[in-house]
Amino acid sequence: HLVEGAHTAAQHATLLDALSRRYAEVLESPLDRVRAYLVLHRPEHWATGGEPGVEAPYFTAVVLEGRPVEQRHRLLGAFTDVLVDVLG
């Protein structure tokens, strides 16, 4: 989830590619089975810590039941690293 207009189309594309690849890598899943999407929110519809317009990207990862906790934790860390690397 990102604030609309806060990042470039190139950053969006890089995020989609990198997150898809990390998901496939960490969960040992075929890349063609991975689905990724961005949700863009208008700035006036976003608040962080109760402060309107303050950006703080976040993600939701859907993982099928049965995956080990350690693997899910690695995925969360990998996704966080991607966000930091791509969005600063």
Describe the structure.
The chain is mostly helical and 88 residues long. It is 42% helix and 9% strand. The chain has 2 helices and 4 strands. It has helices at residues 9-26, 69-87; strands at residues 2-3, 40-41, 47-48, 51-52. It has a two-stranded parallel ribbon. It has a two-stranded antiparallel ribbon with strand order 3-4. Strand 3 and strand 4 form a beta hairpin. Helix 1 packs antiparallel against helix 2 (69-87). The longest helix has 19 residues, at 69-87. The radius of gyration is 14 Å and the shape is globular. 8% of the residues are buried. The mean pLDDT is 92.
| Integer-rounded radius of gyration | 14 Å
Query: Hey, roughly how much beta strand do the residues contain?
Result: 5-15%
State mean pLDDT (0 to 100 scale): 92
Q: In angstroms, what separates the terminal alpha carbons?
A: 15 Å
Number of strands: 4
Shape: globular
What is the chain-wise order of helices and strands? Answer: EHEEEH
Number of helices: 2
Task: Estimate the helix proportion, in percent.
Answer: 40-55%
| Sheet of most strands | 2 strands, parallel
Low-confidence stretches: none
Spatial strand order of the main sheet:
1-2
Structural class: mainly alpha
What's the topology here?
Elements: E1 2-3, H1 9-26, E2 40-41, E3 47-48, E4 51-52, H2 69-87
Parallel strand pairs: 1-2
Antiparallel strand pairs: 3-4
Keywords, please?
88 residues; mainly alpha; 9% strand; globular
Gist?
42% of the residues lie in helices and 9% in strands.
